[in-house]
Amino acid sequence: MMSLESIRIFLRSAETGSFSAAGRSLRLSPSVVSYRIQTLEEHLGCLLLTRTTRRMSLTEAGRIFYDRCLDITAAVEQAEKSVETAGAVPRGVLKVTAPLGLGRRVVAPLVPRFRARHGETDLRLRLSEHLLDLVQEAVDVAIRLSQMRDSTFTLRKVAEIDRVLCAAPAYLAEHPAPAEPADLLQHDCLLLRYPGSEQFRWTLVDGQETVTLPVAGHIDADDGDTLTAWALAGEGIVLKPLFEVAAHLAEGRLVQVLEHTPPTSVTLGLLYPSRKMLSARTKTFVDMTHEALRQHVSEQLALVGARAV
């Protein structure tokens, strides 16, 4: 007889394309995942997944079974959530990821409040500028500040975020402010670098067009707050979300450059799995975090007379 756990292992294997990735997200060894899939195939009497050295893919029978299993797990999850909602007590483990700066300033301070209200929930918070693979890492909620790509996850948008280029007065006293985007190639640009980062190419809006520049500098880091600190110290030009440097701009510690050709904007939002019914713990955390982020952004933008969109 098939177990619900075997069905979930099969679904995750099909979604990630490998036993190793499925095992990481489910905290199982690849050998256990492989054994459970093989047992499932023997029970059904057909091959569900074709295996190669690089990738797995669904067979025709596997695709039919996958679609039916989605209905089964959705029905089970709905039944579980109904019981949980009836009890009105969020419980279980919640895995959350957020950018370093926002994570420290907004998300981390929410955790004690969340735990005080929902003590039966364990929360795992991972702060990183890296964009984690939400499926492989089995993330429940991701706070993202980026140009959102299509995703199977649901996006709850907080705001469209303007970004700016800015530098300290001390830096601009020694280096003429750029008059056009191409001038950035002659400046020290403070870059957010990590494996897979695209932040060493800055895209600016010039009228109805965009221009992308392969900027460079003498120093870089994988922490946005470090880049801000270096900019304040006069080390170069930094690209930042406006709300993150609004206080420095309002007080004159940083000066905006190339205002007529600003960087492209990004979206601030929360991503979570697309399900008919969110668990109580996920919904509660998303609601709290959305409100806190909206308030934080609005308060910071008010310092420079701007508003969240």
Structural account:
With 309 residues, this protein is α/β, with parallel strands linked by helices. The protein has 3 domains: 4-85, Orthogonal Bundle (Arc Repressor Mutant, subunit A), CATH 1.10.10.10; 92-161 and 267-303, D-Maltodextrin-Binding Protein, domain 2 (3-Layer(aba) Sandwich); 163-264, D-Maltodextrin-Binding Protein, domain 2 (3-Layer(aba) Sandwich). 42% of the residues lie in helices and 23% in strands. It is built from 9 helices and 14 strands. It has helices spanning 4-16, 19-26, 30-44, 60-87, 100-117, 169-174, 224-232, 242-250, 280-302; strands spanning 49-51, 56-58, 92-98, 121-127, 141-146, 153-161, 163-167, 189-192, 202-206, 209-213, 220-221, 237-241, 255-257, 266-273. The strands form 4 sheets. A 5-stranded mixed beta sheet has the order 4-3-5-14-6, covered by helices on one side. Strand 9 and strand 10 (209-213) form a beta hairpin. It is elongated and about 75 Å long.
